[in-house]
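W.,

You were right to be curious about this one. When I first looked at the sequence I had no strong expectations either way, so I just let the prediction run and decided to look at it fresh. Below is the sequence, 392 residues in total, followed by the output.
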Amino acid sequence: MKIVIVIDLIDNLTNGSVMTARRFADGLRERGHEVCIVAVGADGADDVAVSERYVPILSEVSAKNQIKFGKFEREKVMKAFEGADVVHFIFPFKLEKKCKKLADEMGIPTTAAFHVQPEDISYNIHMEKFQPLNSYIYSYLRRKFYKRFRRIHCPSRFIANQLDSHGYKAELYVISNGFDRDFKPPETKPENEKFEIVMVGRLAPEKKQKILISAVSESKFKDRIHLTLLGNGPCKKKLSRQAEKLGVDCSFDFLPKEKLIAKLQRSDLYVHASTVEIEAIACIEAIACGLVPVISDSELSATPQFALDERSLFKNDDHVELAKKIDFWLENEDERKKMGAKYAASAKKYALDNSLILAERMFTDEINECRAAKTRQSTNAAYATNAEARNR
């Protein structure tokens, strides 16, 4: 089938939703589908690049979180939509709204994904404790965009439950964003000079890298630990100053896929301290490489689903408890190695290949329902015409 993916930007490799869209596009192509991406920065042979849309103030704020907004260019988009079997939308912004309207005009089946968690927004404007704001954002997104779809891709059961509780009436397809098969345990693991802890994610308030730095500073093995924070974002300078002040041996980096895999494979422990997560594919990738995770038990995060027991969970925002969990896994090397193998096995159900099969099923369900609706309309129109003729 021909699948069009609409997303505001596709050229920022530090954005999780962008990476998900790229993985899905590449995976669907490998499975024999024709895929066209409509986005700022789209440069594939079958893709359509749109211009960046500038929004005063909002564009500056969004740029800090690796977001650009695409401009709706009707002729370009119409060309991309020609012959499409289905159009899939990643974000709920203006480009997607206008493209959805055009797809409806052209009679093309459509589906949408839910990747913008309201709490991500409220944390970045420092209103995370004002729950009515989050409820309003869920409602706003439903009224302005998602109510127009019959099927929504939810990367986790957690976010599907959130949508259900906020009045979303579409059929919700729980489909992991999926990890690449190249993420796997190493054949041999090198010895590290220090105990290597790693966390991957945007350096933003809701990701809580500051809790991890504080936890390492509280560890009784502080001088034996090296911490690596992989990602970019607005909190980098603040986190660097915190680590220096607390005397934590901490490095910052952003790595392409091959180097990221190598880093995960030679690390000793993965920590995911984030308070807000729709899924956290980075955590799955670490687990797939055989790392034991220690995960915040935040009620606003789907990531606790990956923990196999309580030793891999800590109370959200509690750096003292996190320090104790880190110390346990550092002291118990044999148990860590045993559980690392179990975690790698548990990750297999989140493999991208499985996610692509489920996504194909969602697309096919929508296509079939649209065809059935058109058939009913044609039948009803023909019946009405015949009835009118009989009554003359």
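Here's what jumped out at me. Residues 292 and 340 are 5 Å apart (CA to CA). And, maybe more interesting for your project: The chain has a mean pLDDT of 93.

Coffee later to discuss?

I.
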